[in-house]
Amino acid sequence: MNTTSFFKSILFCLTVVLFASCDKDFNEIGSDIIGDDHFGFEKYTGATVLAYNQKLDAVQSNNLPINALGFYNSPAFGKTTANFLTQVELVAADPTFTANMTVTKVQMDIPYFSTLTETNDDGSHEYELDSIYGATHIKLEILQSNYYLRDFDPAPGLQTDQKYYSDFNIGSNYNAVPLNDGDATQNIDFFFSNGERLTPQFDENGDAIDPLREAPGMRIGLNKDRFQQILFSPEAAGKLANNNVFKDWFRGLYFKVSPINPEQGSMSMINFAQGKITVTYMQDVHDAQGHAILDEDGNIQREEKALAMKLTGNTVNIFDNVEAQPYLANTTTNVNTATGDPLLYLKGQQGSMAVIDLFGSADVDGNGIADELDQIRSNGWMINEANLTFYIDNGVDAMATGYEPYRIYLYDLNNKRPLLDYYTDVSVNAKPKFSKKVHDGIIQKEATADGRGIKYKIRLTNHIKNLVDADIDSTNVRLGLTVTESINTITSARLKTPMTLPSSRLPGAGTFSFDRVPTANIINPLGTVLYGSSVAVPEDKRLKLEIYYTKPD
Predict the structure, then answer these.
(1) Quick check: 496 and 530 in contact, CB under 8 A?
(2) How far is 352 from 327, CA to CA, in rounded Å?
(3) What's the per-residue H, E or C state across 353-422?
(4) Which residues of 242-338 form beta strands (DSSP E)?
(5) What's the predicted TM-score (pTM) here?
(6) What is the pLDDT of residues 434-471, one digit of tens each?
(7) How far apart are CA 95 and CA 452, in angstroms?
(8) Nearest to residue 406, comparing CAs of 489, 483, 479, 329?
(9) Low-confidence ranges of the chain (pLDDT < 50)
(10) Residue 436: HSE in the Cβ half-sphere, 13 Å Cα cutoff
């Protein structure tokens, strides 16, 4: 696609949308602006649509904004274990100590995504957890890492950021004795609880008062002796001077998960960067000259202090997949790139996506434009709306059960960027997942309490308008389709091994390869099974491009 024309089109469409937004109800009605009746519009569904599966190799999974932790068994896709490796940084580097420091408590707190649902008469709160998949206890080991996560890649001379991938193997580079060696509910019988976190509080007389109440999160005690060695052993001298030195000394934490029940578990999406470790310790009290202060009995006075650390620095999310055989076969050996696949398997993390070509490859006149597209141009149609509607296969072997992704994402695979319709959609919502509702891609469910998904619809009206408008130099690019965790995240992450696709069905295009996928797809642990473009799919479920148009006078 010509870049200048692309951004001219953006400017034009934004102008149109801004005029429309003068109607104060524009953002509120969102995707209902046009509705589904399309009175007075002609409908065309004869365009060729070719859609097929593409399995993904290991994906870049370092320094993601949100990470998965846990075990989840999807009926359609198989089992995934998500482990997490993170560096740890001092909140305040080069802390000042006196003498005889003794660690008395180490507590790690990491908040979950949650929503407050009720405040009780006694001041307690009820919460509902967000982004938790499954409800079974798991085994959680928090281990001291001995692996140093580099900032820069030494191969090209430390000129580029170091990339770590989802198949990262830490090997034996960790201390095998877990740090979370206390109560069973914090290790061998761990559960993502929706209970609020309570911290005892005391007044100046030492009497208990109302506790500090915090939203749900992981609250785990860590081994005091190990942190005594990390912070206060003779070998630790000078290691807290700055975070670069500290991260080489204390190389971080490895969160290792395994299922208790091999068929069930739970997985949570977590922002680990909001986590903290609080080390409480006692030390001698000294005066300004550094002399120990004695009490009335002649003993050195002791005081309680705290040192805070945060779970920031470099991180890696590690995925271990045991894929269901039908899913694996249908995204590898059974892929039909000539006529399209009957089912499209979209799976986040180290999963799979769909590749879509529009308007076929026939180009009799050799002008580099598909004959179907040439014909639509010659018709002189005014394009009012264009959609791709993806029906969900909710059969017993597909999506009859299990969690369903809230949203899917259609993008320009050639140029690794959103479609024009993404940029021109200015609809917003307080919850980012609901933004850009006109462009859509949001799941539509049955109208029941526990209704299953029916379909996803994606509007690509402006994209099709550009292709139909002969005055705009617009290339009919290949499209990629993935799940997404956040429609506002449009960055890409690398594949460990670039994917090579067969010769494009688009005129003038040859063998095509790509080396990146949307970051928001890697963050999302879920998947969905959609009906594809194959003639084997029933007509009412088959993937079609719907174009609503007005004929010229």
Answers:
(1) no
(2) 10
(3) EEEEEECCCCCCCCCCCCHHHHHHHHHCCEEEEEEEEEEECCCCCCCCCCCCCCEEEEEECCCCEECHHH
(4) 253-259, 267-270, 276-284, 302-310, 315-323
(5) 0.90
(6) 899 999 999 999 999 889 999 999 999 999 999 998 77
(7) 54
(8) 483
(9) 1-8, 11-34
(10) 27
Q: Position 259: which residue type? A: P
**Angstrom distance (rounded) from CA 249 to CA 171:** 19
Label residue 102 left, alpha or beta by phi (over 0 means left) and psi (-120 to 50 means alpha).
beta
CB 43 within 8 A of CB 551: no
| Site of tokens 């002969």 | 470
Q: What is the pLDDT of residues 381-398, one digit of tens each?
A: 999 999 999 999 999 889
Determine whether 214 is exposed, middle or buried from the number of CB atoms within 10 Å of its CB (0-12, 13-18, 19+).
middle
Q: Is 29 exposed, middle or buried (0-12, 13-18, 19+ CB in 10 A)?
A: middle
Give start and end residues of each alpha helix (H) in 166-315. Answer: 224-232, 243-249
For residue 156, the model assigns a pLDDT of 76
Residue 200's pLDDT is 87
Q: Please report, for residues 89, 246, 355, the alpha-carbon distance to residue 94 in angstroms, rounded to integers and kept in the order given.
A: 12, 10, 52
Three-state SS letters, 113-163:
CEEEEEECCCCCEEEEECCEECCCCEEEEEEEECCCCCCECCCCCCCCECC
The tokens 């580079």 sit on which residue?
173
